[in-house]
Amino acid sequence: MRILHTADWHLGKMFYGDYLTDEQEYVLKEQFLPLLKDEGIEAVVLSGDVYDRSLPPAAAVELFDEIATKVTAELHIPFLVISGNHDSASRLSFGSALLARQGLYIAGDLDKLTGPVILRDDAGPVAFVLLPYAEPADVRHFLSDETIHDHQKALEALCAFQSRGCDDMRAVCVSHVFASGGVSSDSERPLSIGGTDMIDSAVFDRFQYTALGHLHGPQQVGRPEVRYAGSLLKYSFSEATQKKGAVLVDLADNGQVSSRFISFTPRHDVRILKGSFHDIMEREDDRTGDYVLARIDDTEPVLDGMARLRKKYPNAMALESPRRRISDHAGDRDFNIRGTTEEELFSSFAGAMRPEQPLSEKETDCLHQLWDALRKEEGGGIL
Predict the structure, then answer these.
(1) Helices 361-378 and 342-353 meet at what angle, rounded to 10?
(2) In order of start, what are the domains of the chain with their CATH numbers?
(3) Sheet holding 2-6: strands in order across?
(4) 58, 55, 60: which is closest to 25 by C-alpha?
(5) Three-state DSSP class for 208?
(6) Which terminus of the chain is more solvent-facing, meaning fewer CB atoms within 10 Å of its CB: N or C?
(7) What is the predicted pLDDT for the residue at 337?
(8) Which of 12-16, 292-296, 317-321, 375-379 is predicted least confidently?
(9) What are the backbone dihedrals phi and psi of residue 315, each rounded to the nearest 5 degrees, phi first?
(10) Torsion over CA of 177, 46, 220 and 149, rounded to 10 degrees?
(11) Binning pLDDT at 50, 70 and 90, where does residue 185 land?
(12) Whole-prediction pTM
């Protein structure tokens, strides 16, 4: 059986105040859907965080509805989806029993879990064990097991419940967890405080393949058959160097697994530009429409930097100056502004902006002439 493993779509995600729905739609329609046809995919698994928040915007819901319909109704490929920590389990699993008859299997609300989903290929049945994200307290209540107090125990118990009846089958697990040894990114919401959300990946040893979601960087954990597909797009600048895509998994008749990562190319990439402000503005770049953060190494302030940067990069999101020198007296407010002349106020500002380069004699003379002209024009003081 050939399976496509994808995760962490975060439909409706906002990036620095802008919705990324159009960017997500581009990747899903122009690359994800064609990939299903081109590679002969027989099942698709989406390992949680379908949406970016529990109450997603209407455009995000419409996009998921359109993609799910194309996968199941048009391509006739079973689509198996679990809820992640960003999703509302109850909203996502609404109508799940009815949708399952159409090949869309959604596991979210614990009360609606029905055990493994059994699909078949020429070699026989393949069990898909769907483990939606759930808080330990919710699993404890659902299973009436008072010994469940952490994510590890909760996952083990939920896995046992969902795996019943598939001991002699090839089995694929779909889960949304933070597996120990995984590398996180800034855009992932912590599952708990203090590291108690960590899961020992040994819980997945009985499965031929485990399709994980939550961590946005594609990676394997423990063994090659336990993998994170990573997120659909780059959702923070900490992900700028990561590849984004999906994992193509071939499950052989004897249970052996081979997999390979297939990259997606976004319409607009997320990049960090480095160098001096002048160099960044002067160097040739054929991708000026990307979402960029400029991390400049200038030691002096760059006046009106963002506005100037956006003339070249209209989607510039941030400008950082980690090496900028700051005066020892920056931030001092020990002078009376009402008793300060225009020249003194500007000299204070210049000293804060250029602590290592005081105004030259020529600059000072020029400023005196400017102040004199302004006073004559204003008929007195200008403050």
Answers:
(1) 140
(2) 2-263 (3.60.21.10), 270-320 (no CATH), 337-378 (no CATH)
(3) 104-107, 79-82, 43-47, 2-6, 245-251, 257-263
(4) 60
(5) coil
(6) C
(7) 56
(8) 375-379
(9) -100, 25
(10) 10
(11) low
(12) 0.82
DSSP E strand stretches across the chain:
2-6, 14-15, 18-19, 43-47, 79-82, 104-107, 117-121, 124-131, 170-176, 178-179, 198-199, 209-213, 219-221, 223-228, 245-251, 257-263, 270-275, 291-296, 316-320
Q: What angle do CA 140, 146, 151 make, to 5 degrees?
A: 50
Q: Is the pLDDT of residue 189 over 90?
A: no
Mean pLDDT over 218-243 rounds to 94
Tokens of 233: 């797009």
Q: What is the DSSP letter of 29?
A: I
Q: How many residues does the chain have?
A: 383
Listed in sequence order, the DSSP H helices in 93-190 are 96-100, 136-143, 151-162
Q: How does pLDDT run across 11-52, given as a tens digit for each residue?
A: 999 999 899 999 999 999 999 999 999 999 999 999 999 999
